[in-house]
Amino acid sequence: xKRTALITGAAKRLGKEMSIHLARQGWNIAIHFNSSxxxxxxxxxxxxxxxxxxxxxxxxxxxxxxxxxxxxxPDVLNEMGKIDLLxxxxxxxxxxxxxxxxxxxxxxxMAVNFQAPFILSRDFFRxxxxxxxxxxVDTRITTNKSNxxxxxxxxxxxxxxxxxxxxxxAPEIRVNAIAPGVTLPPEDKDENYLxxxxxxxxxxxxxxxxxxxxxxxxxxxxxxxxxxxxFADGGENLGQNP
Length: 242
Description:
This protein has 242 residues and is of the alpha/beta class. The protein has a single domain (4-231), classed as Rossmann fold, CATH 3.40.50.720. It is built from 7 helices and 7 strands, in the order βαβαβαβαβαβααβ. It has helices spanning 13-24, 37-50, 66-80, 103-128, 149-169, 191-198, 210-221, and strands spanning 4-7, 28-33, 56-60, 85-88, 131-136, 173-180, 229-232. Strand 1, helix 1 and strand 2 (28-33) form a beta-alpha-beta unit. Helix 3 packs parallel to helix 4 and helix 4 runs parallel beside helix 5 (149-169). The longest helix has 26 residues, at 103-128. The chain is globular, with a radius of gyration of 17 Å. It starts with a strand and ends in a 10-residue tail after the last strand. 43% of the residues are buried.
């Protein structure tokens, strides 16, 4: 029987790349989206054309709505039959120093970036009962830069959740994390923007999505790996060269 993955934020950017990557390996994909309806449908149709023997379905859920988040796993299981892999990929990324952060920004980013993965991980244990969870954190968790205060805090919390869940859910469920760095340009920027950022990295180059996909494969295939964090960031977590 083919394995099934639920990927949050699967309709575009990194989520889309991971969906296509896993589909090539024979996975069925539950494509979650919030507002990217057209992109989700286009991705589903593309996958069905290329992999007609596999199953691809789309699931809409606003991850800032806890009631809707709690329905997502049951909906996916009802439609797909099972879930073997949960990838908590969706996140919101807004700037704001600590001293200027309002309650709305705090609540909205924590809801999507931490609370939703918390609920989905809990429900994966309760409903799927075995398998694998992969959380997408961020290389920013190694610093205390506060220009994206709530985003950074939410990703730090997600990494702590990864370790706690790995311990509590073992041995039935493995839980690991990937920390991307300079990967894809913001939607209003181009590759030149990334290349300039990359000059501050130890590796002096952008990795694109390939290191993340390779990390994904390593976590999936290493059956003894749990509670671990793979940095796919060109050494950004190490700091800048002296």
